[in-house]
Amino acid sequence: MISAKAAICLICMRSKPIAHLFKQIADAWLTASVHFDAFRVNPSAYMTATKWWIKRKRLRARGQFAPLLSRSPRAYTLWALRHEQMAHAHSLPDMDRPIVALVDIRADRRPVALAATCERLMAENLTPLLVGSEETPIVAAAIAQIDWSASPWLFPMATGDRLAAGAIAAYRAAIADTRTRLIYADDDLLIGRRRIAPYFKPDWNSELFRHQDFLTGACIVHATPSDLEAVANSANWASQLVANMAKQATPVHLRKMLHHRCRRPPLRRPVPPIAAAHDLPPVSVIIPTRNRVDLLRTCLEGVAAAEYPSVEIIIIDNDSDDPETLGYLAMLDPARHRVLRHSGAFNYSAINNRAAQEAQGQLLCLLNNDIETTDRTWLATMATQALRPEVGAVGARLLYPDGRIQHAGVVIGVGNAAGHAHRFLRADEEGYFSRHNLPQFTTAVTAACLVVEREKFMAVGGLNERDFPVAFNDVDFCLRLNQRGWQSLYEPRATLIHHESVSRGLDLDPVGAARFAGELAALKRLWKTDEIYDPFHHPQLSRSSEQFAVAL
């Protein structure tokens, strides 16, 4: 006869294979469902991806599959099944630094929602303080109820929000491994019992936080009584406390899905930069060109129309032989335009470096000849950002002529190289938490329209002529700026149209393909883009998609 404990152990041992079997069945069913949803959304694109997969063109196939599969309403459910453990370690109640949950119930007193929140907190060995209750009617009253001698961390949250199993254990492990005053994690939304809209967040991005509070309600803070007293009289005390803590030490991102929320803070729509255009320093606009006078004329008209006090225009011609183009260049007013000649094979890096050497402006604007401007403030907007001491290269939002996004920042690691964030999304779509509409730090930006201080450009040696004559020179340039503490910045308030590659053509010939392969190899060798994760992306977002798709 066996003991009760032994019997329970035997049942558990038998149940594990059964649970594993059920998980496999659920995975297979969800996988089939996600693929069916993807096929139904776009049969043609799905069949194209399938064809590439059969032909063993796996990278191209994954790039097509990733955004299709992520559109399925069951994609995140499949991700959760594969990535979240069925059992989690629970936090210990006797840690040296306790975590105090401050649940603000003043805006939402639903009993069922509050009970669900408290149940999950108590399962994590936390006893909540309810701000708005009889015992703690206001935030100031909570200060007296917290044992500050234990150096606690605070967890501000709202009614209805829930912690994932093991969340506090994960936070406590992070506390032991860092000296910051704020730790945040990823979150999703709850619709009934269903979890949707996962936000796999970037590592700390102070510029994005100006416009999108992705911390409050999904973070813990190491605050003092005076920190809490400073915000006690505010209706938005939690967000103000978090913002204050974020200024005091760099927040640490815990790349785990730890929060299930009922709502998120609203976006703060960006307003134009406040610097007046007449206060901006001279800028040298560098435009490489070859033939295609129609593109060049449109580009120059846009530069001339920009509201900017002092603009030097340098056109650097790479062996144009079209009579109309040559005639147009000869007719340009030399008082407003400098035309330089650069003969030989097209080397975008060498062309821009030469022009930068001769430029007189404090700022440089690298501008493709196939850029069409849509407003007069784009240059002043980008210049204002480029003058910030912590900013390196500033990139604009570029649209294809049909209105879809061509560039909204560059993500390292996409396709094991680098990709344009949010490509093919329409500017008026929500996309990935409206990130394409918000100024933010990025790892790199495109040189098709880039503004940088000339001093910073020269400090890193300009563009790399040897390894990146055509492709990836902007990525390499931005990464070198980042290393010096000059972070790249994406600025959507400067939006232009990019007629991509129409003047030079695509690299479909064997020579162009071989050159591109060499540049890709150099990017991987120098920057390990086939290994690293972009800090402003996320390991749980697909490396095969430029559209921030959940990695399946």
CATH architecture level-2 label of the largest domain: Alpha-Beta Complex
Domains, number: 3
Number of helices: 17
- Strand percentage: 15-25%
Q: Low-confidence spans: pLDDT under 50, at least 5 residues?
A: 1-12, 86-94
Query: Averaging pLDDT over every residue, what do you get?
Result: 90
CATH fold category name of the largest domain: Spore Coat Polysaccharide Biosynthesis Protein SpsA, Chain A
Q: Over the alpha carbons, how many angstroms does the gyration radius reach? A: 27 Å
CATH class of the largest domain: Alpha Beta
Q: Give me the secondary-structure category.
A: alpha/beta
How many strand elements?
20
Question: How many strands, what sense, and barrel or not for the largest sheet?
Answer: 10 strands, mixed
Helix content: 25-40%
Q: For the terminal residues, how far apart are their CA atoms?
A: 48 Å
Gross morphology:
globular
Protein name: Glycosyltransferase
Keywords: Glycosyltransferase, Transferase
GO molecular function: glycosyltransferase activity
EC number: 2.4.-.-
Structural description of this entry:
This protein is an alpha/beta fold. The protein has 3 domains: 18-83, no CATH class; 99-261, Spore Coat Polysaccharide Biosynthesis Protein SpsA, Chain A (Alpha-Beta Complex), CATH 3.90.550; 281-527, Spore Coat Polysaccharide Biosynthesis Protein SpsA, Chain A (Alpha-Beta Complex), CATH 3.90.550. It contains 17 helices and 20 strands. The chain has helices at residues 4-41, 43-54, 58-70, 75-83, 111-123, 139-145, 167-176, 206-209, 225-229, 237-248, 293-305, 323-331, 348-358, 378-386, 454-459, 473-483, 510-527; strands spanning 99-104, 129-131, 153-158, 162-163, 182-191, 194-199, 219-221, 252-261, 283-289, 311-317, 337-341, 363-367, 371-373, 391-399, 405-407, 410-412, 418-420, 440-442, 449-453, 487-498. Strand 1 (99-104), helix 5 (111-123) and strand 2 form a beta-alpha-beta unit. Helix 1 packs antiparallel against helix 4 and helix 2 (43-54) packs antiparallel against helix 3 (58-70).
